[in-house]
Amino acid sequence: MVRILSPNSQPIYSSSSSSSLSWSAPTPTPMTTSTSMTETVNGSNLFNISGYSLLKGIGVGKCVASNTFTAGGYSWEIYFYPDGKNEQDNATYVSLFIVLASEGTDVRALFELKLLDQSGKERHKVHNQFDSGPYTIRSLGSMWGYSHFFKRTDLETSDYLKDDCLKVYFRVGVVRSYTEGPEIYSIAVPPSNVGQNLGHLFETGKGTDVNFEVDGETFAAYSEGHRSGPSQWDNEGGSKSRGRRSSWRDNGGGSGSRGTRLSRRRTSMLSRRRTQGPSTPSNEDENNQLGQFLAEQRKLLFGVFFFFLFLFLFFCFFVFW
Fold first, then answer.
1. What's the Cα-to-Cα distance from 301 to each of 26, 101, 124, 291, 307, rounded to whole Å?
2. Closest listed residue to residue 92, CA positions, set 133, 36, 153, 139
């Protein structure tokens, strides 16, 4: 049994609580969306091959290479074979390839190869794979190109060779796929110190307005709807707070003095209760509550009795009149 002591009300006894079952509609399942994106990351290089006549006779399978350039996060190089790449061709054709010069496996890419016309007629020799689909480069050193790119005798009499120089343009588009979804942000939440704050409030007793007395021990607490600081009536001069304001004025008029006065009063009450021993609920209060209950029951019984008596008399009058 717990007794609650409130400054403006009679003691209230609390012994049990009840619970009830409730049902709520199921929460709809949230739906998210995502999108698969596929695109090409492009890179290009212009390879100038000067001194072509000096490269003839270098040997089948031997090449000159361009500087390394990047596309799609990979390194690439252009290889030009003046005497061709394959022995069986007998240096009849020049060969041209692009080579993966960095680590990678199954790199899907698109290629465009262009031998530039240097006469100004814009009749370039073009091999464009961007229109036919990507090619897979398996690993480092794998290449894409043409062993029979151009017949040597035709190349040496064409507009592609000028001042003993060839100009080769290569464009690479690396295929990259990824998935776009909703962005997720994480916010670091500091650890909660509500327990420390509540403990500090209970230790200081600041702002308490109700006391619980359990087995002779008194505990300060806060009632529902309590708020710290002066109420609206305090500011408007209401009658309920006049005595309170006068007591504040006598003690300095500030909230700090009120908290000090309450703390001193609580300390003195606790010391008196501990010296006098544990207190028990008053028998007189219990007898008063029992008497009120019996009086209400007597009124109810009298009401029922007179109601049935009235019905009986009305029935007799209706039958025997």
1. 50, 106, 117, 15, 10
2. 153
| DSSP 3-state of 317 | helix
Backbone dihedral angles phi then psi of residue 59, each to the nearest 5 degrees: 120, 140
Residue 32 CA, chain-centre distance (Å), reads 14
Q: In the predicted model, is pLDDT for residue 262 greater than 50?
A: no
Q: Which two tokens stand for residue 63?
A: 């090449």
pLDDT in tens, 227-252: 544 444 344 444 343 333 333 333 34
Amino acid at 193: N
3-state helix, strand, coil in the chain (%, to 5): 30, 30, 40
DSSP class per residue in 116-176: PPTTSS---EEEE-TTT--EEE-STT-EEEEEEEEEHHHHTTSTT-BTTEEEEEEEEEEEE
Question: Greater confidence, 163 or 6?
Answer: 163
Distant-in-sequence, close-in-space partners of 84: CB < 8 Å, separation ≥ 6: 60, 61, 90, 91, 92, 93, 94, 95, 147
32: which DSSP letter? Answer: -
Q: For residue 211, how far is the Cα from the chain centroid?
A: 43
Q: How far apart are CA 116 and CA 171, in angstroms?
A: 13
E strand intervals along 152-295:
165-180, 210-214, 217-221
Query: Do residues 201 and 207 lie in contact, with contact meaning Cβ atoms separated by under 8 Å?
Result: yes
Q: At what angle do helices 242-250 and 255-276 cross, to 10 degrees?
A: 90
